[in-house]
Specification:
Largest sheet: 8 strands, antiparallel
Shape: globular
Number of helices: 9
């Protein structure tokens, strides 16, 4: 069976014609900012994710989970998709319980279910997932969190995985309600460590039926109980020993110092630009946590002191998902967090000196307060060099459909365009059917699934098939996708900071495991370059303390940068357009070619001079950021 038809512009004449047709549909000022469509139904992503009851939830356990990971599991240069599945308290009669799914990218816009062949069949209350090469063998490994015991899958390099949880020392003495996870190198020894968040006490997940405990009503309706009235849990940190095993250092590192809370998603970021990874945890119904790295193997929780734990008026929120980016291009990473309904998402602007301010309302994010947000990510959908914000939503109470027209169980997505002046514009109503579609969503993972230079979004929907959202809008702006390979640093380069300079503009991002809502984004870094056909300078600050600089790096390609060696590979973006986008839409590569009058590099390797750029300096001494 042939996958969905993908059209490829193969001549300058066809590309120019498609460009003229697309641009003739409406003047630039009247064009919709994006047109997201859902490719999942025609791409083979059809298995349903099962999480609790369809239209009734007895326990809070039935409301969480649904993480998703996009990563290249077979090292073929194309992102694959892993969807975390859940379970059902009533069982499945004679039907087989659901399993999490791994879909292999077939390079033609379709995906093949390789779960069984990959050795990933497993039933249970799956929650989240994160990716990192914990043994530095060059193959990305997969960690999946569960209500119960987590699982570490070692990538064996042949498309299969082995469960090494017990062997690695990651089996815990007691079952936990684990939620989000993230690999990080907190001590910068070149070996990945692992942070795992937890929600409530394990027994409390099914302790109270609706109406039996505290916090069991909403809008006058009897609903499942929690999290208030339930016992909280604590986060965990496991140090990588460098021999394939981990040691629980939660107490020694200070992770157990804060009181129990309701943790969902950990976000690893260097918020104070000191070269050491810190950890932010989005908490439900409590102040969120910010663990500052003390550079000595310990952390200090500073969320309230840093201004990132509560709102500007001192309220604790019901945090779910979280993401980081330098949205105002001041050289500091900012944080966006999704929350419960009757509240807004929260934008914390990084002021420097370890301090954040709540910029939710000044930035325009205070506009929406009727949705319950989960997965979230900064992505530059229009390639203008300013990070935009994408959010998926869905209620926890099926009863929301009976609470009045303001509330609903299934909800649309939100897309905020960064205006470049510190404010965001809600463009959701003009961003295509994939945004407007109502689903009950949880995890969302962001990545360039088709190597086109555009970020796609994979969404895990509760008791439904997933969504694969692709923006069909034709664009002539440029982009750059960077894959980093550590040598002295961890192989996945997790924690590396990249700065892309375009004239006076400086764009920054970090290679990151975890985030969104209990999910894993593309480990490659995506930068929109606007009208710039090349990056003047690309700097990489590695976790080891080394620094590499490359100048004159051509745009519109996937570039591989190895620590200490600079550019070691590059390939032009693909000129594919999914059939669901319609015949009038040219590909991104075609748009770029039409605007430049050349199609010489479409669909193939970039010529060596353009691909390689010029290596300016490789330093093995600590960079300024790491001192």
């Amino acid at each position: 069976m042939i996958g969905p038809v993908l059209r490829l512009c193969i001549s300058a004449v066809l590309c120019a014609a498609a460009l003229a047709l697309a641009s003739g549909l409406a003047p630039e000022s009247a064009r919709d900012p994006a047109r997201y469509v859902d490719l999942a139904p025609t791409s083979g992503l059809t298995a349903r994710t099962v999480i609790g009851g369809e239209r009734a939830k007895e326990y809070i356990l039935e409301t969480t989970g649904g993480g998703v990971a996009v990563f290249d599991h077979d090292d073929d240069g194309w992102l694959d998709i892993f969807l975390v599945n859940g379970s059902r308290l009533s069982g499945f009669a004679e039907a087989a319980p659901p399993t999490s799914r791994l879909y292999r990218n077939r390079h033609d816009g379709s995906f093949a279910d390789v779960t069984e062949r990959a050795g990933l069949v497993r039933q249970g209350w799956g929650q989240g997932a994160c990716v990192g090469d914990y043994d530095n063998d060059g193959h990305p490994d997969l960690f999946v969190t569960y209500y119960g015991q987590n699982v570490l899958y070692r990538n064996q390099g042949d498309g299969t995985f082995a469960d090494v949880t017990r062997k690695s020392g990651l089996l815990t003495p007691e079952d936990r309600w684990n939620t989000g996870c993230a690999f990080l190198d907190y001590d910068r020894d070149g070996h990945l460590d692992l942070f795992v968040s937890a929600y409530t006490a394990y027994e409390d997940a099914t302790r109270y039926k609706p109406g039996e405990g505290k916090s069991c009503t909403w809008k006058g309706l009897t609903v499942m109980c929690g999290p208030r009235g339930l016992r909280g849990a604590k986060n965990a940190l496991f140090r990588g020993n460098g021999d394939g095993t981990f040691t629980d250092v939660s107490a020694r590192a200070g992770i157990l110092d804060p009181p129990p809370s309701y943790g969902f998603t950990p976000l690893v970021l260097d918020y104070d630009n000191d070269g050491w990874p810190d950890v932010y945890v989005a908490n439900d119904s409590a102040a969120s946590l910010l663990f500052h790295n003390n550079h000595d193997g310990t952390f200090k929780e500073v969320g309230l002191l840093a201004g990132a734990g509560l709102t500007a008026d001192g309220r604790a929120q019901a945090g779910m998902g979280v993401s980081a980016a330098d949205y105002d291009r001041d050289g500091r990473l900012d944080v966006v967090k999704t929350n419960f309904d009757d509240d807004t998402s929260t934008l914390y602007r990084n002021l420097g000196n370890g301090i954040f301010e709540d910029a939710t309302f000044p930035s325009g994010l205070g506009l929406n307060n009727r949705y319950l947000g989960w997965g979230v990510g900064f992505l530059d959908f229009d390639l203008d060099g300013w990070p935009d914000i994408f959010i998926v939503n869905g209620h926890v109470y099926p009863e929301a459909d009976r609470a009045g027209s303001r509330y609903s169980y299934e909800q649309p997505r939100l897309l905020y365009r960064n205006r470049g002046d510190g404010r965001f514009e809600d463009v959701s109503l003009r961003a295509g059917p994939g945004i407007l579609a109502r689903k009950n969503s949880r995890g969302a993972a962001f990545g360039d699934l088709f190597n086109t230079g555009r970020l796609d979004v994979v969404v895990n929907n509760m008791n439904d098939a997933p969504s694969l959202l692709h923006d069909c809008t034709a664009r002539s702006e440029h982009a750059l996708l960077l894959r980093l390979l550590g040598t002295r640093s961890n192989r996945s380069a997790i924690g590396a900071r990249v700065t892309v300079q375009l004239g006076k503009r400086r764009l920054i991002d970090e290679v990151r495991s975890g985030g969104s809502f209990c999910s894993q984004n593309d480990l490659r870094l995506h930068f929109g370059l606007g009208a710039s056909a090349s990056a003047d300078r690309v700097e990489v600050d590695w976790p080891s303390g080394g620094k590499d600089v490359v100048s004159g790096l051509g745009a519109d390609q996937v570039v591989v940068l190895r620590e200490g060696a600079g550019v070691v590979g590059a390939e032009a973006f693909k000129a594919f357009v999914p059939g669901a986008c319609g015949s009038e839409i040219p590909s991104h590569a075609a748009m770029v070619a039409a605007s430049s009058g050349s199609v010489a590099s479409l669909g193939g390797p970039v010529s060596a001079p353009e691909a390689s750029g010029r290596m300016v300096r490789t330093s093995s001494t600590p960079s300024a950021r790491s001192r």
